[in-house]
């Protein structure tokens, strides 16, 4: 019989149809159906498909005694308890590599939108204000100092793109990387002090929560800008709002937020911020490739074959 799968996060329609052809797919129970789900469905669930921002809580895992695999449709696994997975013996997979280019592209796009004030320029034209005068000067993107927090797949892809801008590139990781020509800084504060634009591309974990704090933002300085395409938890959002309002940094480009999809009104009100609704991987091509990789991991697991992209 097909394995029972709990789908916590949507895939593209084609991938959901493929999932339903291979497995018996269940979706989260509504408020009036939870008792029936726990009694009739939960004991049969062998696999869970979820998103990087959704993950799976330990309370739900506790209801799934037959759980064998959690397949994440995303690269981040901070919303899945990996220690519990190891203890319980179920596998965890994600979808790395296939989304690297799109996320890196968005990081550069946010940088360009900030430096050239493109959101404000768009509003300026639409409001008919060009008829009354020129748009204020912006800041050039070329020849600047770019700092990258985290130099994994996505961080390296961002750096490769930034090389074309002819500036300086530096990075911060736990230990230096031997095969890159970029300057290394052992702390985020030192990296920020040496950067005009600080780009956050590190993994989220308890040790990286609020790693970009008020001290880092002060080191970035009143002409510096922050770009975050990693996870909202890496940036102290309250400290960021204060720094933006007080002019202690020049601006921020944000694709992720601490309590997304809730975005602080203070950020929405600011004109020196570019906001995106966590769309780093949101292209048809990449979401399709991610869904295919989710299916490949599930197929491999239930066929007893090696997993294409295991986390645990």
Automatic annotation (TrEMBL):
One Gene Ontology CC term in the entry: cytosol
CDD domains: HPPR
Domain D-isomer specific 2-hydroxyacid dehydrogenase NAD-binding positions: 108-280
Keyword Disulfide bond listed: no
Keyword Oxidoreductase belongs to the record: yes
Family: Belongs to the D-isomer specific 2-hydroxyacid dehydrogenase family.
A molecular function GO annotation: glyoxylate reductase (NADPH) activity
Keywords (A to Z) from UniProt: NAD, NADP, Oxidoreductase
Superkingdom of origin: Bacteria
Annotated ranges, domain D-isomer specific 2-hydroxyacid dehydrogenase catalytic: 7-311
Protein name: Lactate dehydrogenase
Pfam families: 2-Hacid_dh, 2-Hacid_dh_C
